[in-house]
């Protein structure tokens, strides 16, 4: 597995959706075909907690989508990226249901689409488009070890200021896209859910 | 108009951008944030992608979604290609010469028969510095009165600050925030509205600046702040006055600054005397101890800065809030020092003087306020209107504005799109986009940045700069006063305006991030205003109180224009529009991506939803004294109970295909500053069409 990765810091995201549009621009995606979506989440404790969760493929090291795809349209690349072959895809959408991270998206034509990690940009020595535009450094690209250290620093800082966060993607659920998530939200509404309806307000999981 | 093409083929649905080593540098002209951008063109010179410019010191390569959406707005189905004339209700293509000749004839006719006041301009973003200068020369030669973006955007903020400091401009650049100890953000969701520059505020926070957000909604900015103070809509003035009173009563103000550099302190103290912590808490819903703590923080954390937003500007009682918070910064001594002052996107570097000999200047023969404009059009006092913008969508009471424009004798629209206003015109003229025009762009950092023309001119589009010069020629006016290019225009403006004399195009290009103003010839640029302690008021000091009137007068929003006299039983709720990151002006809404990122919705508290008997996504009919519209409910705890928030604008002739949100806002202005409100207007709401209970 090569050493680069991406860190998504949910504590910083301001929901401007610049990453979504940059992804669509870079990958030539039509309206409705976005591979990266930003979802608001809120929770009422003694005060209101609200954050945005950017959802896209996390490039798991042991991806469930590869296991469930009936025709082998999804493969693990040597560099650790999960690659989806749109030509082979039959649009059965089983992977969409199986993915725990909301990473597989249904396209306008019924097939599935997903983040390619902008592998064409990586080949040219550049970083993924969503990282380049993020105005608040909620998305960072770099060497995996460096990012884990950076995440650790951000975590210490946030915890010292009273915001409890944890890193996801480094232990038993290895992913190439690491997340810094708010602990408070972990037990409420699933991050993979596309949208939250009003009933979720009354019955948090 | 048609809709955008959506491929339904079962083949590959994505194609990465071709690498482009020949990117053009430009400055984004959308929100006055002034972000540097890099533009990628296709072989025809059309924009295919926009990236952030990592060499620009202000945004450091970061951008929001808006500039990336431009390619869709530029080449989408709504873009106007050539001049057209309406014949029997239908548009027919004509040449530019025919169009200009027709307009010139009509123009001369109305001036001769009905006086100069029978023709007015309603302009929003009519292009860059080139177009603005040509427009101002044309207005001086013809006596055309113009209504710009002032009343729909910043009139109150500009006027109140001008009364206080003698100049409506921001006193400090946003970049100074890293030097401040506390930043007070009032009614401003800059995380969304200035997303590309928001990293300055987060950087300041990391360096220890305390970020305090006062807002009715729990915004993205509030989410990122150290402290969020939720306030009842329209009561900011009372909070500001209570802070003033507490600071004055407890001698927490800068006594030297007040004594030496201000007038009217006694009057101010008297005006806020009755707003005790207890009374303010009752009005605002902010607990007494929170107000007290904020006042104490402001007194201790110095220097401090203030960043006000449309939340206290585009409201019907804006005057008191703006005056209270700005006076507060003054008496704390937070003016003219690094890390202190007022941040704003208002960049007033003054007007060029003496461009035309005095005997050639024609003054409009009638004066009208923004409110008078409606009536003057309805009564036939105005015969002809020159539109460069979309007043049927971005001015209040869209239905009334539409009807008034329909009733005019002759309407011209110089426009990018065949939008809700252009569709009513007798002659439409295709305009260039700011990427198709060179010019100077100001920013929230108080700098001026030069941008070259980045993209090929679309079809037959012409800039306002060319249009006004050519129209003057057709009208038989002296056209030699007009510059013939954006560079010549800036040279002319610079040499006739002392405050920007030193800001040559060459110097702007040489200086990364541009040049601060004022900047005299060969002189140093002024990063922030008033460091010398001299203010451009009559007295040379800061005026803490209004002349011949009460220093500040807090009036409840229910008793202010637009809500006054409306029944609370019939209209029990409050409606506001609030900007989002994906679009800013109406122009941004002509992108499919913008529509996809921010589909129309109305935010409401779960308790409000349950009162109406609706769940998330159900259609809700909102009604005010001027209009009604139907929007899907978006249930969120981030707004208070009884309060609705939606995005501004929309438009029937836009990709949204929806009644303009401004249909719901009355033609009424803040009596102090003159701004139209697009927030805090009383409304009624019910579930639409058999839904709910």
Low-confidence stretches of chain B: 1-10
Q: What is the gyration radius of chain B calculated from CA atoms?
A: 25 Å
CATH architecture classification of one domain in chain B: 3-Layer(aba) Sandwich
- Helix count, DSSP H or I runs of 4 or more residues of chain A: 8
Which topology of one domain in chain B does CATH recognise?
Dimethylsulfoxide Reductase, domain 2
Beta percentage of chain B is: 15-25%
Rg measurement of chain A, Å: 17 Å
Q: Structural class of the secondary elements of chain A?
A: alpha+beta
End-to-end distance of chain B = 38 Å
Order of strands across the main sheet of chain B: 5-4-16-15-14-6-7
Number of helices of chain B: 23
* Poorly predicted runs of 5 or more residues of chain A: 198-205
Give the tally of β-strands of chain A: 10
Keywords for this entry:
heterodimer; A: 205 residues; alpha+beta; Alpha-Beta Plaits; four-stranded mixed sheet; two-stranded antiparallel sheet; 10 strands; 27% helix; disordered C terminus; B: 693 residues; alpha/beta; Dimethylsulfoxide Reductase, domain 2; Barwin-like endoglucanases; seven-stranded mixed sheet; six-stranded mixed barrel; 29% helix; 17% strand; globular; disordered N terminus
Please describe what this structure looks like.
The complex is a heterodimer of chains A (about 200) and B (about 700). By secondary structure, chain A is of the alpha+beta class. In chain A, about 25% of the residues lie in helices and about 25% in strands. Chain A has helices spanning about 20-25, 65-70, 95-100, 120-125, 130-135, 145-160, 185, 200, and strands at about 5-10, 35-45, 50-55, 75, 80-85, 105, 110-115, 140-145, 165-170, 175-180. In chain A, a hairpin with a 3-residue loop joins strand 2 and strand 3 (about 50-55). The longest helix of chain A is centred in the last third of the chain and has 17 residues, at about 145-160. In chain B, about 30% of the residues lie in helices and about 15% in strands. Chain B contains 23 helices and 26 strands. A 7-stranded mixed β-sheet of chain B has the order 5-4-16-15-14-6-7, covered by helices on one side. In chain B, strands 21-25-22-24-23-26 form a 6-stranded mixed beta barrel. In chain B, helix 10 runs antiparallel to helix 13 (about 275-285), helix 10 runs parallel beside helix 15 (about 320-330) and helix 13 packs across helix 14 (about 290-300). Chain B is globular, with a radius of gyration of 25 Å. Chain B starts with about 25 loop residues before the first strand and ends in a 6-residue tail after the last strand. Chains A and B meet through helix 1, strand 2, strand 3 and helix 8 of A and strand 3, helix 9 and helix 22 of B.
